[in-house]
Structures are given as C-alpha cells and as structure tokens.
Amino acid sequence: MELGHDFFGLMKATRHFIGHALLHQPAVQPLRISPTEFDFNEFAALTALVSAADRLTDFINVSALGKKIKEKCPNKTAFKKLRGSGLGAEADALQNGFEAILKARIARNELVHKLATHPARVQRPLIERDREAFEKQRWPPRNNPEIPHEDFLRDQNLRDAKELADVEERSKFLCNCYVKLVKMGDLSFRSEHSLRHAK
C-alpha cells in the first residue's frame, strides 16, 4: 500500500519540477557558464521520475512475487507470473516501459556530471588562453583572419540555435517520460488488482 502512496507523492514532485523547468526554459540563454534554474529543475524532475519508477518496480515485484528485489527493473520472474496469470499484454507493455524509463536514469546520471563540470569546461579554455597571452605578452593570432564578420555571426547564431534546440528536446524528454510513467502506473495498479482477485 505504501509503495502506491510513495509513487503518487513522487509523481506529484515530478510534476512540480517539470512545471518549474518549463517555466524557466524561455529564460535559458546560449553560452551560459553557470547552470540555470532550468538545469536544476530538470535534474530534480529526473531524480523524482527515477525514484517513482523504482517505487513502481517494487510495487510490481511485491504484487507478483510477494517481496522486494534489489533490481532497477521488475524481476523477470515477476513478468512470468503476470503472463502466467493471463496478463501477457500487460507484462509486455510494462517490460517495454521499464526499459524505456532506464533512459531517464541514464539522463539523470549524465546531467549530474554535466552540472558539476560545465563551469569548468567553459572557463578552462578561457583561462588557458589568458595564461598563454600573458606568457607571450600578446594575444594569439586569429585562426582565419580572412573570415568575414557576417560569417562569424552566422556561425555563432547556428551554434546558439542548436544549443536552444537541445534545451527544447530535454524538456520534451521530461514530459514524455512523465506521461509514460503515468501510463505504466495505471497498468501496474490494474495488473495488481487482477492478480489479487485471481487468488
């Protein structure tokens, strides 16, 4: 019972953080050095999503096997029991859903690393260029002094657009994961109900 309540509480937290991420998304600027409110809320949403998926994993294992198992996806034996109880379509859908939600876990892990190292990755080349200029007592020559200013601006605009498109994709990924987990929750609770009444 408490696993279901945990799941609903974590999904409520996920909605909150996704909402804040979407609220702050328009304020994201390209060439940012420090993480933004969007980045922090995206991380919080992914963490809550993964935790909700873990509660759902426990719920399926307890429903089918009567115990929790320390795995990131429901135990294969749990899916076999669901299939053996006439819930083959539900077991297939849940298994595919849990495999897809693993992408959220991977995205969360990558984001932790990105948030921790982004300022250093942006600032390090700048510091190295300053150090080199100080040691040589002059700024390094431009790589291609012939490049027209308009081409430089166009290339920069393309890089900015690509970075903002990446933020848009990350927002869509959050929303898609949330919707998928809602559907999986519904399927899990219906499957548990069927299993309970089949006993």
Q: Can you describe this structure?
A:
The protein has 199 residues and is mainly alpha-helical. It has one domain (2-198). It contains 5 helices and no strands. The chain has helices spanning 2-24, 37-65, 76-84, 88-136, 149-198. Helix 1 (2-24) packs antiparallel against helix 5 (149-198) and helix 3 runs antiparallel to helix 4 (88-136). The protein is elongated and about 80 Å long. The protein starts with a helix and ends with a helix.
Instruction: Compute the number of strand runs.
Output: 0
Largest sheet: none
Helix share bin: over 70%
The Cα radius of gyration reads 24 Å
Rough outline: elongated
Overall pLDDT metric: 83
Alpha-beta content class = mainly alpha
Which regions are unreliable across 5 or more consecutive residues at pLDDT < 50?
Answer: none
Give the H and E element order.
Answer: HHHHH
Short note summarizing the structure:
This protein has helices spanning 2-24, 37-65, 76-84, 88-136, 149-198. It has 199 residues and is an all-alpha fold. The mean pLDDT is 83.
Based on the model shown, name its key terms.
single chain, 199 residues, 0% strand, elongated
Please specify the SSE layout and strand pairing:
Blueprint: H1 2-24, H2 37-65, H3 76-84, H4 88-136, H5 149-198
Helix pairs in contact: 1-2, 1-5, 2-3, 2-4, 2-5, 3-4, 4-5
